């Protein structure tokens, strides 16, 4: 799932500025009337704030003051903020004159609100910029980029990309295609693969985006390379002169450092849909954690009484584009279940990389019940709240399953994994072929919509109430 970076950046900075002008307006109103709010039967206090917010919104839409936000110096930032606030003040004065409110408008509130807004923008923009540029290396939400290039170009490309200070992009590795330099570093960025091993590296590692910058005289099959990364659900950026290449996917232009590139992505998702999905996840997680707390009091003692061991079971799983996280469940097996799994591998009923047994001897009696009713999954609402998972997505594989993946299998990890999904509501215990699960997940990702998520949530409730498909 891909969303253009500038949309998120503008929304966050716009929100910071709206908060600043709102705080400034109410603070100056409070000071102007000496610690009390004026009696305002016509609600003009709030009406004037609405005008200020509307004006600032209009400025953002028309002039886009956040262009090159993360590259601006202190003085460039100050000049930009002065321009923004002067224009906002001029528009607000014009609006006050047109609605015949200028005579009643407090000059103190008007001038000091703009002064507060200027100081707020200068300070908060600086803090936000420093935080994001520092945090991008460690953030799980940053685009982890792999650069594919030649030995003579690598240093210049890395320098230029770092210099551009893209707020949510971090270079995690370099592939040198004209010689084997694996194990070395360029500007502290490790060289992780050569041409022969880059696909295998991408399968096993966290890679959100690949930037290919190679000279024309390199006789490499660019189209096959792009398709191989695309099969994993990885966004591919290609230097601009190759835009005409016929590959059946969405393409759009963007800048990688100072370089013009064409990005090949399976689907560009509007920002508002991403925001709504996350808001639904957070609301659902809080509700689910409340239910989990009540259920813990009821079944916790039964789990502990039947077999010694922890109440909750945790396990490393593989999430979006290879990110490792710890998943949580109510323990439904004996404490030594992971060790005993090796003894049962020859009884696996699934075709492929997943392990499934209908009568698994590692499952306790209470475990059978909580699995059949899907109660064991409730602690995963904590994973949803943290952002490791979503309410709806694809099933996150175990690490040992993931290590057996082929390139096209990784495509099912190009979206945040879910507490429920298409497989869970399609009779999961009746599906024995892993390739069928992959096909279902890829179809879900390619045709994702909020409507489909809500349909899956409703179907999940029905499946859980009937205890169907869970063994």
Average pLDDT for all residues:
82
User: Which quaternary structure do these chains form?
Assistant: single chain
How would the global form be characterised? globular
- Work out the number of β strands: 12
Radius of gyration: 27 Å
- Structural class of the helices, strands and pairings? alpha/beta
Low-confidence stretches: none
Number of helices: 14
The count of domains is 3
| Biggest beta-sheet profile | 8 strands, mixed
First-last Cα distance = 31 Å
In spatial order, strands of the major sheet run 3-4-2-1-5-6-8-7
Percentage of helical residues? 40-55%
**In sequence order, what are the helices and strands, one letter per element?**
HHHHEHEEEHEHEEEHEEHHHEHEHH
The fraction of residues in strands falls at 5-15%
Q: How is this structure best described in words?
A:
With 471 residues, this protein is of the alpha/beta class. It folds into three domains: 5-135, no CATH class; 143-265, 3-Layer(aba) Sandwich (Rossmann fold), CATH 3.40.50; 271-466, no CATH class. Helix content is 47%, strand content 14%. The chain has 14 helices and twelve strands. It has helices spanning 5-32, 44-63, 74-98, 107-135, 154-164, 198-204, 222-231, 271-306, 337-344, 365-372, 380-386, 399-402, 434-446, 450-466; strands spanning 143-149, 169-176, 185-186, 189-194, 209-212, 235-239, 250-256, 259-265, 312-318, 324-330, 390-392, 418-420. The strands form three sheets. The chain has an eight-stranded mixed β-sheet. A two-stranded antiparallel sheet has the order 9-10. A two-stranded parallel ribbon has the order 11-12. Helix 7 links the parallel strand 5 (209-212) and strand 6 (235-239). The longest helix is centred in the middle third of the chain and has 36 residues, at 271-306. The mean pLDDT is 82. It comes from Anaerostipes caccae (strain DSM 14662 / CCUG 47493 / JCM 13470 / NCIMB 13811 / L1-92). Belongs to the bacterial sugar transferase family. Residues 277-465 form the Bacterial sugar transferase domain. One of its GO terms (cellular component) is membrane. Keywords: Membrane, Transferase, Transmembrane, Transmembrane helix.
